Amino acid sequence: MKIAAVLLATFLACDAARAQIQVELKFARLQYVSYEPVLATVNITNLAGRDIELRDSDGQHWFGFEVTVGEGRLLAPEKTAESEPPLRVEAGKTVTRKVNLTPLFPVQDLGPYHVRANVFFGDLNRFFYSQTKVFQVTDARPIWQRTVGVPEGLPAAGSVRTYSLLSNRFPDHTKLYVRVEDKSTGAVYNTFPLGRVIAFDEPQAELDSGNTLHVLHCAAPRTWAYSHIGLNGQLLSRATYMETKSRPRLRRAAGGGIAIKGGMVDAPAAQAARAAGPKLSDRPPATPTDD
Known about the structure:
The chain is built from two helices and 22 strands.
């Protein structure tokens, strides 16, 4: 009986230690396009019964991830992880961290990736881990592509950029993506979704005189989404247009700009995005500088 009591006490002590911190990892979806931001949401709950401070200790970062592929092969980070500032968590409270894994780990190759978040608690000198989550990296179907030069007067002038529009089918919808890369060096500047697309009309793509990209696609019945993308893959503006007597269409304007003819801008959507699509009466959009 004494041995059983000791074993029970040991088990309860270990269980209590495991319950000090709860780590939960979530991904918004299971499937991502290659080079798309993979956003991990980590919830950290303090179950210690007292306020705690999470901090680096003895050269050990208090927050991190383990990413494995294939038969459990651990991926090395692309760069040395930066220290997170100390984090104080009140008893019983939950804090949330959102981290883009794409620039941190080589998760561009197609296939499944297994991810586990970890939190190091210096007071106990031990790690606490989330359950392992899996996401799949696929590549979308290219539907349009253009290679352009970076204009004089801009950083990296004389180099090239390739814009690609990609279509990716999910179980219940299809999304349109844009990718900006320099194929001569292999650098991918950005890949991100422009939103849902329906097979009502082919997306329209036009380049202005500054070689920035304008895209207009049908996002829903009688609803069109406009996006303006810069040379380094930055989203410069976006807006929503409603079809009225005529469908919205991209048209070249005086001075080398791109305008939208037809339809009516959806004011609430434009305000939410803090940017509206160009009108025929607008001056041509200024060429953005690289960030």
